[in-house]
Amino acid sequence: MTKQRILYLILIVATFIRLTTLQNLMVFTPDEEYLAYIAQTIVKHFHIIWIGVSALGLDFYMGPFWIYAIYPFIGLTRGNPLVLGVISSSLGLLTILLIYLVGKTIFDSKVGILAAFMYATSALIVYYDQQPYPSGVPLLSLILIFSLIKTKASNKWWLLFAFAYGLVFHVHLSLFLVGFVSLYWIILNRKPLEQKIILASVLVFIITISPLIAFDYFHKASNITVPIRILRSIKEGGKPTNLKYRSLVLLGSFSRLLYLDSHKNNADEILYPCNVKEESTATHINWVFSGLVFSAIAMFLTKKSIWNDHSRRGLLLYCLTFLIPFLFLPVINSVEYYLLGFFPILFLIIAYVSINLKKPLNYLAILLITAFALHGIYVVFTARGDFGVHTKQKIITETMSIIGNEPYYLEEKGNCHEAEGWRYLFSYYERRPERSSEDKIFAWLYPKEVSDKATRFSVILKETRSQANIDQGYIYRFEEGGFTAYIYKN
C-alpha cells in the first residue's frame, strides 16, 4: 500500500472517529455559547465586530476571526450548536494532513505518516478536536512552522507566515512567542529579503490584525498595554510560579496523549478546571507512559542529525516557545490546552525517534504505537458523554414535556459543570425561557428576548455530583447523564 493510500485511510478513520461520536461527546460551555450568540447577532443584523473573546484575565481581547468564520454556518443551520463541533473536527482533519506534510518536509514521509496516525487516534486529541473552543490551535501552529520551513525555497512564504501569525491574535495567544522563531529563521537563513516581500508581509499582518488596531484606537490602547499590566502584576507580587506542579501537568499531558482510561467522561478530561477538581474522573498521570515520551524527547536531542540541520534545530526552538511560558511564566495558567500547539510537534518527535531506532526496537516501537492507537479508538467509542450535547437534548425534551407551552424560568447550578450553555440549547432545541440565570452575563446580546412576563414554572439544572443546595419543593425530578433536573410550579 502506498503512503498516499495509507494517509487517505488515516483520514477516513479519523473522520469516522470524530464525527460519529460528536453529538454524544461534544461539550457546549459558556465559551461556545458566547461565540454562538455573537455570531447570531451578525446573522440577524449584519454589523462589524472588532473583538472576540477575552484572554489572560487582563482585559486583552482576541480578534473576531473565529466569529466571522462560524457566522455563515450558524446562519445556514439556524444556530445548530453541533455545527461548531463539525467545524472544529474538520480543522482537526486538516491538522492531520498538515502533520504529514511537515513531517515529510523536515524528515521523511514515514515520519509524517506515523505522526499523522498518532494524532488521528489519540483519544485526548479527538476530544480537543471536538471542542469548539479553543479551535484550530494545532492547525495554526503547523501552518506557522510549515511556512517558515518553506521560506528556504521562496521568500513568498513569508506572506503566509505573516497572515498566520496575525491569526494568532484571533485564535490563541499560546502561539505568540513563535514570532521569535521567525527572527531566528531570518538571521540563520542567510537569504536576503526583498524590500517588497518585507513590505507586503507587514501589510498582510497589519490587515489581519486590523480589527484589533481599530479596537485599541477607540479604547485607549487597551490591548497593546497588556505587557505593562503583566509586568506590573509581577512586580506587585502576583501568584508565584509553582514549577513542580507545572512540570507534573506537562508530564501528565505526555502520558495522556498516549493513554486515557476507558469508560470515562470526556468532559472531565479536557475542561478546565473540571479536570483538576476532586470529583473529576480525569485520567491521572501514568509515569511509565510519561517516561516513554520523555525518553523520546531526550533521544531526539542527542541525535547529531537534528543539530546539523537548520530546519530541525528550528523545530527545537519552536518547542521552547510553548514549554518556557508554560513552565515559567506566571501569567500563563498551567492548563493543558495551552500545549495544543506543541502536541503536533511532539508527535513528530516521537515518530522520528521510533522509526530511527535500531532493529528490532523500531518494530517494537511501531507495534506499541499501534497498540496505543487502537486503545485510543476504543476509549473514544466507550466514553461517557454525561455532559455532552446529546445528553442535554434528552434533558431538554423531557423537561419541555412537563412544562409544555407555559412560560418558565431557567437556572443552572453546579460546581464544575454549573454553566453549560443551557439557555442557548433550550432556545434551539425547544423554546427559550422568559428569563434565565445566564441573563446577567449574556443578556446584552439578546436584550429583546428577556421578558418581564410572569412564569408558571422554574427549572433548575444541577450537576448531579455537585453539593449545591436545592429547594425540596419541586413537583418533578429526573436524572440524565451527569445532570439532575428539578421542576417547580410557581
Task: Please describe what this structure looks like.
With 490 residues, this protein is an alpha/beta fold. It folds into two domains: 3-382, no CATH class; 389-489, no CATH class. It is 59% helix and 6% strand. It contains 23 helices and seven strands. The strands form two sheets. A five-stranded mixed sheet has the order 4-3-5-7-6, with helices on one face. The protein has a two-stranded antiparallel sheet with strand order 1-2. The radius of gyration is 24 Å and the shape is globular. The model has no long low-confidence stretch (mean pLDDT 92).
Report a brief summary of the structure.
The chain has 490 residues and is α/β, with parallel strands linked by helices. Helices cover 59% and strands 6% of the residues. It folds into two domains: 3-382, no CATH class; 389-489, no CATH class.
Based on the model shown, name its key terms.
2 domains, 59% helix, single chain, 490 residues, five-stranded mixed beta sheet, alpha/beta, two-stranded antiparallel ribbon
Regions with little confidence, pLDDT below 50 for 5+ residues: none
What portion of residues is helical?
Answer: 55-70%
Question: Beta-strand percentage?
Answer: 5-15%
Mean pLDDT: 92
Please specify the SSE layout and strand pairing.
Blueprint: H1 3-20, H2 22-25, H3 30-44, E1 54-55, E2 60-61, H4 65-76, H5 82-106, H6 109-121, H7 123-130, H8 137-150, H9 157-171, H10 178-189, H11 195-208, H12 210-218, H13 226-235, H14 243-258, H15 266-270, H16 287-302, H17 304-307, H18 310-328, H19 343-355, H20 361-382, H21 389-403, E3 408-413, H22 422-429, E4 435-436, H23 439-442, E5 457-463, E6 476-480, E7 483-489
